Each structure stands twice: as structure tokens, then as C-alpha cells.
Input
Amino acid sequence: MTDIFSNATAAVSYIQTQISLAPTLGIILGSGLGGFADHVDNAVAIPYADIPHFPQSTVKGHSGQLVIGTIAGVAVAVMQGRVHAYEGYLMDEVTFPMRVLGLLGVRSAIITNAAGGIRASLKPGELVAIADHINLTGTNAALGPNEPRFGLAEGSGQRFFDMSTAYALGFRRMAIDEAIRQGFTLTEGVYLAVLGPSFETPAEIRAFRTLGADMVGMSTVHEVIVARHMGIEVLGLSLVTNMAAGIVDEQIDHEEVMEIGRSVEKRFTSLLTALVPQIVSESAT
Output
């Protein structure tokens, strides 16, 4: 059986030879949102292919490099792209980067994604703070032997761990207040994850709405599960890039996802840049 902890330690050791900073906040950029990494100061970009045991992105819009530097004076590790189970990766591989970020020193994370809007009031281009999630991928990232050495905070790293506050309420309130200061509304919503890669059917979307989902996508939940196992606090942000099947009479296209991401880059960058020092300050108290 693969020793994930040893592999993660090897990845961390390599990364530390390339950088002089110790990041305390991690950011995972979803489809169409990778441009944020270009705003990292004093940046060192490390291709995933160079990092031992690190999975490599195969999806358009996921550049596949780890960018370490500073945002507003805060040391950050930014994942410019992620991998997904639908690419053929095992769940341990999908969540391996989050394990590595934690061992690098990350204690809080901003995890973003592109999502389809289920709630009718949502519009393409709208940012939503994730309040909770529903995991319908058919698996869980914590399956397999428990590895308590990944516990980074008191009470973390346990076989059974709490998910009632998977997305930190304090971080969400910060994000909502900051959005108001910047002149737009950031609503909250429930994110539902499916395995993919096919988009959902209209019947599935009707079922998901009945379950209480506001957005749907193919990522995030397993990274959050692993983050919480490690004691890392999370702010989740979804960019609504399209309305889900059956909500409007339009076909869904990945190119549309990318285009919407580019269209909100300025707002997304401004929000994250302002939130980074606030989150780190909150985590330190």
C-alpha cells in the first residue's frame, strides 16, 4: 500500500529546496480562475511535473503549477489548477496536493471552483460563498487506513472527524463583508459534487434542487474533507459559470466556463487579495 505521508513528505522536501518562504495560506484555483496566480508577488512557479508524486492536471484551464510567493505581504501557496477523479486519478491522488500544502505549513485555505447554478436566482458570473456541501461522488477522501500524522491541529487527524463546520463561518462573514465594501453582493449557497465528467441531466438537477443544492460541480468536496481531517480551516468560493441543465434552454459548454472565468477575473482577484491578510489574521487569533 502506498505510504501517502512519506510521499507527501518527499514532495514537501523538494518544494522547500525551491523556495525561501513558508506559506501559511493555500489557494486552489478552479476552472477559468487560474489567472489569479499571476498576481502573486515574489513568485516562484513549480510545475507539478517536477514535484515528486504530485498528480498532473490534464484539463484545459488548469495550468498545473504551484505558485509560491506573497499576496498583500502574506506568504501563500497557490495551486494553479487541480486534478479530478474523472481524469482517472485515485482519491488519494486527487487530495494529495492538499496533504502537501498542510505539511508545508498551510493552516487555512481558500478553495475555489467553477459551478453550475441550480438556484434560479443565481446568474453566470456570480461568486457564491459555499456554506455547506453535499457529496454525491460515491466515495470519500478519508477512505482507507487513517494517518494521524496528518493531524496539524489539536484534535485533528482522527479516524472520525467532524464536518459540521466544513466551511468556516468566520471566513464566510469576512468574504461577504468584503464584497459589500467592494460594491457587490456575495450570497451563500450549498455546493453539490458529482463525479463527472459528463454534465448533469435535467432530471438530476431537479433532484439536486430537492436535496437543497444551489450549485453543482465536480471538485472541492474531497479537498475540503482532507483539509478538515488535517485541521485546516476553509473558505469555499464558487464561480457560477453557467446555469445547470434544465434551468435554461441552453447546452452547457466547457469553453463557456473558461470565458466566464476570464470575465470576472478583476473582481475575483480584488476579493481574494483583500481576504488573504484578513483570513491569516483571523486564523492567528
Summary: The beta strands are 25-29, 41-47, 65-71, 74-80, 108-117, 127-135, 187-193, 215-217, 233-243.
